[in-house]
Amino acid sequence: NIYNIVDFTGMNAFLNACESGNLELVKYFENNGFNLEFTSYNNMNGYLCAMHNGTNIANYLESRGVDCYVSTTNGTNAYLIAASYGNIPMLQYLEKHHNFNINYVDLHGDNAYLWAVWAGEIPTLKYLETHGIDVYKYDENGKNAFVQSVEIGGFEVVKYLYDKKIYDNFINSYTRCHKI
Length: 180
Fold this sequence. Notes:
Elements: H1 13-20, H2 23-31, H3 46-49, H4 56-63, H5 78-84, H6 88-98, H7 112-119, H8 122-130, H9 145-152, H10 155-163, H11 170-178
Helix pairs in contact: 1-2, 5-6, 5-7, 7-8, 7-9, 9-10
């Protein structure tokens, strides 16, 4: 049946509707029997899929009992995904209503700051900085935000971190990554 048709990541029509930000379509699928607790192969649910949109779909799914504290198989939670999409209203909502920890790390040691670096989300970096995130966090490979920004090649993020002097641990990070 249509509920079980998924793409190569295990995403079905309902999860894609959540990801697209189309609340009308989410409600349509719900009214037509789609399981609101459906998860993809890596445990991505509708709530996590809704993180790069405003807060309307997430709020709706919460009101329907969908788990907002779920994380993927690699420990990615709603806060990390919202940071990667620059969804500052969602970050604020998660902090205020669900006490999400700004310094939470996934199973690879990445916090929201590192996720925002990968995505080139400078406004999100600024938001996280003003709310006390560890800007010098190392991931499991010994890389910090500056090293990752250089590797990704995001000039604006590299420049931003350099201008803010968020590179103090660059030598330590580089040494840890490359075993000099």
